[in-house]
Known about the structure:
Layout: H1 7-15, E1 19-20, E2 22-28, E3 31-37, E4 40-44, E5 49-55, H2 59-67, E6 69-74, H3 80-87, E7 100-102, E8 108-110, E9 115-127, E10 130-142, E11 149-152, E12 155-158
Amino acid sequence: MTHPIEAGLWREAMGGFLTGVTVVTTLSGDRIAGTAVNAFSAVSQSPPLLLVCLDRSSRSLEAIRSAGFFAVNILSETHMDVVRRFSSKSAEDRFQGVAHAPATTGAPVLTGSVAWFDCRVHAIHDGGDHEIVVGRVLELGSDKAAAPLAYHRGNIWCLNSREPVPEGRA
């Protein structure tokens, strides 16, 4: 017999997994939308597919469904002040003062991102209290010099070390 898993214990255990920090953006009509997401992964190289997981109650999910496209922005050290704004449920104008430009689809790409992916919605799957949004990548960009942000146990860290782990020690 399985017992229900307590939500706090779940968050604590999952918080032990170091993840990247992304902001998923879209443009639905004249409404710009975006939210911080750490559930992001590559799915397939051919065709180029990726996934993000969004809370079912997210206004950004609603906007992505309506628009049919989105961008994933991997945040860099230049976005330390942006992370909390896009993570907050109460942020009114998340894009105020955040430099961005439209990708081919129209989805906002945040200036200074480590990498960005402009996607069309390929599929949306049930994921419990989240939806798993699979995107087909139409265009992308990368900045090798940008230092990425990471999320671990409720904290945001900048991974600015440029020294790789020596071979045989990873």
